[in-house]
Amino acid sequence: MKNRVTELLGIERPIIQGGMAWIAESKLASAVSNAGGAGIIAGGSAPIDYLRSEIRKCKELTDKPFGVNIMLMSPNAEELAKLVIEEGVSFVTTGAGNPGQYIAAWKEAGIKVIPVVPSVALAKRLERIGADAVIAEGTESGGHIGQNTTMCLVPQVVDAVSVPVIAAGGIADGRGIAASFMLGAEGVQIGTRFLASDECQIHENYKNAVIKAKDTDNAITGFYSGSPCRCIKSKYTKQLQDMEKKAAPPEDFEALTVGSLRKAVVDGNTDEGSMLCGLIAGMINEVKPVKQIMDELSEQAGKLLGIDF
Fold first, then answer.
1. What's the domain count of the chain?
2. First vs last Cα of the chain: how many Å apart?
3. Phi and psi dihedrals of 134, rounded to 5?
4. Which of 18, 98, 111, 207 has the fewest CB atoms within 10 Å, i.e. the most exposed one?
5. Can you give the C-alpha Rg of the chain in angstroms?
6. How far apart are CA 13 and CA 295, in angstroms?
7. What pLDDT score was predicted for residue 248?
């Protein structure tokens, strides 16, 4: 398929893998890129040396384009912004902030800039300062979320900007892709579906939780603090929600949340770990290789849209 997203990123299929912190690393990113999409390595708050190593590993595993996600609220965001230039990354996606201070340097280095946006206002602002495309992410997504739904947000962003719009949030099969394209998107970003892939390196306990999750097995924490985050429902999310209702002091939240993602991803601790996951998990029932997932997504979307996807 050829459109503005595939041409912008030099990929065969307009499918981007989500930049999931602690999850999106070289093995998963390279598998998505080798299958014709655009893989992403998550920056998060990981050490710079680790991220440099992951970028270089990914280059050994694929000769296709891949990107890096930078969470702008991370303490090492400035270092990571320089690292992607040094390592010649193809594109950058950003979240949790405004990447304006870095865009000029990235574009001078030939790096495409694709921010994640939860609103029309931010999409318009980032287009003005040089974004090459935007990812309109609905509240259905896993991890940190906004309030608008994908179906409502995407067409409004499409109408407001002239750069390509990539839809994200609640997309796990070809039907979701086709619906996104009907709303005006020219690509999709998918995260949760790739949690249940052979190449995803999360602990088996986490993968099994995704597979077993029903449509109601999700929870939002951080709602009252202004930093909502969507996860699989667990003892951890219930404890956080109870603390929020009681207005517990910030140090209590910090004691519970620091290291929680690692507990889920690395240790497989589903009681104390933060299992980031989107609302679409109820549709995911099997672990498959990334290539098979990508082929199934493309085949179903192509049939529905009547195109060679």
1. 2
2. 5
3. -135, 150
4. 98
5. 18
6. 10
7. 84
pLDDT of the residue at 271: 94
Which of 126, 163, 156 lies closest to 138, judged by CA?
Answer: 156
- Length of the chain in terms of residues written: 309
User: What's the whole-model pTM score?
Assistant: 0.93
Both 85 and 132 in one domain: the answer is yes
CA proximity to 35, closest of 289, 242, 305, 214: 289
Q: Are residues 92 and 121 in the same domain?
A: yes
Cβ atoms within 10 Å, residue 49: 9
Give the model's pLDDT for residue 246: 85
On whether both 227 and 193 belong to a single domain, the answer is: no
Residues of 258-296 as b/e, b for ≥16 C-beta within 10 angstroms?
A: eebbebbbeebbbeebbbbbbbbbbbbeebbebbebbee
CA 184 to chain centre: 20
Q: Is 221 left (phi over 0), alpha (psi -120 to 50) or beta?
A: beta
Give the model confidence (pLDDT) of 56-66 as tens digits: 999 999 999 99
Q: Which domain holds residue 32?
A: 4-199+289-305
Separation between Cα atoms, residue 29 and residue 295, nearest integer Å: 16
The answer to whether residues 300 and 247 belong to one domain is no
Separation between Cα atoms, residue 276 and residue 144, nearest integer Å: 9
- In this predicted structure, what is the pLDDT of residue 111? 95
Under-50 pLDDT residues of the chain: none
pLDDT at 161: 98
